Amino acid sequence: MPRLLYDSLAALSPTLKENFDAVAKAASEIWDEQHHRTFTTHGLPHYTQVERNLDALTAPLQRSNAPLIAEEIYVLLCACYLHDIGMQLERPDARERHAQYSYEMILNSEVWVDEKKRTATLPILGTNARQSIARVARAHWSNFALALPSEDFIHNTVKGRLRLLGCLLATADLLDLSPVRARYFNSQHRLGKLDPTAELHQKMHSYVRGFEIKAADTTTPDLHFSLAWQSDDQVIREVCGWVMRSFEREWRLISPILRTESGGAIRWQQDSWAVVKFHPKIAPLEPFSKEALQVMRHECAKMDRINRDAFVSEYLDCLGNRKVCVLGIPGRSEVDGQQIARWCYSHAAVQHGCKAAGVEVRMAAPIDVSSLVGAVLEQFGTHMPKASDADALKYLEADLSGRTSESLVLVLTIEDEDDGLLNHIIKIFVDSWAHHGGARIVLLVAPEKHLKRYAAVSSSSTNWGVLAQVDIAKYLVDHRGHTVDTAAKLVEQATIAHIDRSPGWVFPYLDKRCRAWEEVRV
Fold first, then answer.
1. What domains, with CATH codes, occur in the chain?
2. Structure pTM?
3. Which is more confidently placed, 92 or 173?
C-alpha cells in the first residue's frame, strides 16, 4: 500500500526520512507488548492506520500551492507513531491521561535526561523537533490541538503550521474505528475479564465492518467519511448514535481550523460530512453485556442533559450521602423530565455498590402490582416466583430489608394512574432504608396531578417549564461542538419558534438541526 506522506518525506529530505525510520523503530519496540491487555489496540496496527488516515486527509493539501514541507511531515509522522505511548506506562489512569503522559515521555526522551524522568529514549533530531513532536502527539486530543499556536519553530530554525498538524492528527486518530483494534475479541485466548468500559470500546470496534476517508465525489476535493457496520439491529444503532454524536462534536470543532490553517485546501463536505451504512448481518456477533450497555447509555444520557443542575445536585446529594428520598419529575411530553430521569437512572447504574431499576405504568392497562414488583426485583438481581399482589409486596419488603449496604434507585414512570396503589411500593422502598448503609431513592415521573397525591414526594425548586436560552447555548457549545455564534443562531431560531418554552421539544429540535451525517441501510 502506498505511503503518500512518507514517500514525500523521502523525496524532500532523505535525512529526515532516515531519522523518522529510527523513531518508528523505537515506537515499535515500545509497543512490542501492550501492557494494558484490556485496552483496544494502540500499537502498530493503530498508528499505521492513523498514518493512512493522514494520507487521505492531506491528499488535497499536497496538491495545493502550500503542501506540507519536509519538516512538517517529519513532525506529523513522528507524532503519529508516538501519540499513544503514554498508555504503556503502568499507571491506573493511563486511559484518562495518556495524551499528557505521551507528551512528557517525548519531552524527556533525551539520552542525558535522568532515568527517574526518562521512561523512553527516542532518537529525535533537535530540541525544537522534540518539543513540536511532543505537542502534536498530545494534540490527538482536540482540546490540546485547538490550543496550539498557528505557527512555531518545529525543527531547527524552520517554522511550521503547528495547529494544522495537531488538528490533522486529532482527526486521523478519531476516525480510526476498526475491527483490527478489537484485540481482545480477535483472540481465542481471553486472559482476564474486561471491565464494562473496556468491553464497550473493544466491542464497538469489533462491530465495525470498515471505513473510508475520501473525496465526496469526482467533482470536488471535499472530504467525506464513510462508516460501515456489521449489522442493522437496535444495539448497533445505539452504539452508532453514541459514536457519531462524539465524532460530530469533534468534527464541528476541528474542521473549520483545518480549512483555515490549510488555506482552504482541506475541506469537509458541509451538508453531510459522513454517511453510516448498516449491512445485513452475515455471521453471529458477540453480544454486549448489560454493564457495558449501561456505560454507553450513561454517556448518551450525559449528552442529552441541559442544565437541571439544581435537581441533579439534590439527587447526587441523596445518592452520595446515602439518604432516602422520593423525587418528583413532571412526565409531560413538553417537559424534559424523561431525559433527566434517564440520566439519573444511567448514573446510578454505573456506580459501584448501586443498583437501578425502572418500570412504567401505562394508561388503559390495569395495574398489576405483582408484575411490577417482579420487574423491579429482576433488575435488582432477584427472581421472584409467581405471587399474588399482597405476597409480592411482602416479598419486596423482605428482599429490600436484606440489602444492608447497597444503594438502590427506582424510576417509576406513570402515564396515568388514579388509585394510588403505587404508594405501597414507594412506602416499602422508603421504609426498607432504616438502619441500612445504602441510599434509597425513588424517582417518580408522573403528571403533576399525581405527584401532588404522593405525600412522600420531596418538593423541588426546579422550574420544569422553561430552559434558559443561555443554558441551551452552553449545551450546544459544550456537547455539540458549536461556536458561540452558531449556537446563538440556533437558540434564536428556537426562540422564534417558541421551542425554548417546551423543554421536551428542545432535544429533537436540536438533533434535527445539528445532525450533519446520514444513515443508509445496505
1. 4-278 (no CATH), 308-458 (3.40.50.300), 469-521 (no CATH)
2. 0.90
3. 173
